[in-house]
Design a protein that fits this description.
This protein is 44% helix and 18% strand. With 737 residues, it is α/β, with parallel strands linked by helices. Strands 1, 2, 3, 4, 5, 6 and 7 form a seven-stranded mixed β-sheet that branches. Strand 18 (566-567), helix 23 and strand 19 form a beta-alpha-beta unit. Helix 1 runs antiparallel to helix 2. The protein is globular. The relative contact order is 0.09. Bound molecules: adenosine-5'-triphosphate (ATP). Adenosine-5'-triphosphate is lined by residues 160, 163-164, 175, 178-180, 183, 199, 201-207, 532, 535, 568-569, 675, 677, 705. It comes from Limosilactobacillus alvi.
Amino acid sequence: MGIAKRDIKSIDAQFNDIRMNTSTYSGMMDTAMSVRAQQQMLAERENSWQHAADHLATLQRLEAKPYFARIDFQERPDQKAETIYIGLASFTDTPDHFLVYDWRAPISSIYYEGELGKVSYQTPAGKQTVNVTLKRQFQIAEGVIVTLYDTQATVTDQMLLAALSNHASTKMKSIVATIQKTQNQIIRNTTADLLFVQGAAGSGKTAAVLQRVAWLLYRYRGNLTAGQVILFSPNQLFNDYIDQVLPELGEHNMVQMTYFQYLNRRVPRLKVADLRERFEQVTDGIDQKANRLLTSLAFFKATTRYAKRLGTDGYLRFKNLRFGNQIFASKDKLRSIYYGFNATYKLGNRLDGTEERLRRMLNSRLGSELHAKWVEERVQNLSKEELDNLLQNRPREFASDEAEYKFLAKQILIKELMPVKRAIDHHRWLNINAQYLHLLRVVPHLVKLDQWNLTAAEWSQYAERQIAAFKQRRISAAGVSIYLYLYDLLTGKWGDRKMRFVFVDEVQDYDPFQLAYLKYCFPRAKFTLLGDLNQAIFTHENSRSLLSQLSTMFDQDKTQVVQLTKSYRSTAPITDFTKQILVDGEKIEAFQRQGPQPKLVEVADQAAGVKAVQTALTAAQAAQEKVAVIGKSLADSEEITRALKQAGVQVTLVRTENQRLVDGVMVVPSYLAKGLEFDAVIVWDANQQKYAGDAERQLLYTICSRAMHTLTLISVGQPSYLLAKIDPKLYEKVIER
Ligand SMILES: Nc1ncnc2c1ncn2[C@@H]1O[C@H](COP(=O)(O)OP(=O)(O)OP(=O)(O)O)[C@@H](O)[C@H]1O
């Protein structure tokens, strides 16, 4: 590393010594060549320095914790048992002599795949079966073995128990030493184009998928970079929570953003409904029905058909292409060019053909304007500085005055016409805004409204409202996906072909249109979708049909569904309690880790409620637990924050997803708590008014399932009826009246 660093310094120094010779063409050429050579050398050295730095960091990690498992196994009964050690990365003393195997190496799979006895694993050469005679787990800290466990089939995984008993932190950790068998199947899957992981809250979906990214980067090293993997997460807060896992595993982070960040950056001039608006929006019956239509796969297909037909039906909307104050090509002119091509032309050909024509028009304009009066005036009035600028490093001798004039006039015109060229290149002559509004208006001709329980009058009422909002630059969450899909279809954007793996966490909060659009945006990628249909907090009833709709988008043979039913996050008493909030939560299995029963505190009024929160907070803090008070809406969260602050309790309200997770007590609205976990959760407040109906069931489940060790629900007045059905033996009820 030292050498690489020294090299970089000396190249930098040489760089400063390069003499700039720009007085002649050949001098310029030489200078450019030597700059280029130095740049290349520098890039190479930086690369090798980066490589060495990564390697050193890995070795330092290995020094503190060289391995976490030992496996003894026989390949054949008559053979002596072999011993291997497994760690975060491989370590060899001589080439091919492995003292420690990387956890991602094929052989390491036997550690995750089974107990003692016959275990099979995949190698590049096919399936291999071995007889495992010893499986030993180690906890090592700073190079010293703290504990070790030998696995016996009937005993619970002690190391997992130890890992899960730890306190929560503001950053998620890797689970490399304790990956479970079904999680391992997700991590090492190479065959599915669509891998759908349906898992209970806390079953390790996120944990497994981050390990999967690290595994893929290892498996396809040399061919896959972290920039070719993208993870869509539920909110920005969650991004912050998981951003240490891959670096801890010695890998660079993948591209990470929320679906709406991905869209928003493409429509900077529109205001898209944000997370809170989407969560708290009160919608009437028409809105709900229209939304169901607009977010469906059927509507995705209808949009595709609509765009396709625009190639011939004459309904494409254009914008005048301007050159300063004048019109360079009018809407009518554009229309006649676009629709002037042969009827067999597809959208893409029309687009290319039109652009080609516009570029030719631009070139002839360049010629025809050469002697325009305004150009002549500009040339005559050029200041010395402007002249230098235009001539740059060009030799100043011209064959004639006319040649000099032509050169200067052309330079001026190229500069002036640049905005027109850019407008052509960026398809600004297409009026996508008007087209989107047109699409909304013609929906009754595209789909059968009665199948969506809508009348023509209802639709037009809905569409007019959306159009009015759009004119004030506001667009709904459903609208922005449609808008961008339409944009892509019309401008011939075919998605990002470099992206190889797409991960979508909390997929139950996506609608079929969004997923179909993602698939369109990443046409070559393999998809891993993770979700819990029981935690659908945005899409509610739609989420149930998501899986069946998804299956139509991908090749059946290349679709795999993996179920994770065991919940690791919470203690057994908490999991047993929370799963009864659900209608069909029986399938969820608790991991046998003990802890106190959840507590439901019913109080008479607000003041008593705040006191009850304080009591729960004091208990949690005494146990040094990381605690969060979770409110249903932002207003609820603000209310309890204010009350606690007045009572002298220090708390941080997490108001938007752009904040950071902090130490100390946090108050979090439910929709921002997605995917996160805390030692102790206090639910504020779980009364009947706030969680009144079945629509809130999944939300209440999501909130309660954030708790790892203790869960307290405070109810001001009558508790939610969603809690009434829960077996009273599973929790402690306190009534303070
Ligand atoms: N194999 C494992 N070893 C150690 N810890 C694990 C394992 N699997 C899961 N966990 C822990 O369980 C907790 C929950 O995991 P994770 O957040 O990945 O679950 P999830 O399925 O994404 O949950 P949710 O859907 O509720 O957000 C985390 O603290 C994670 O570290």
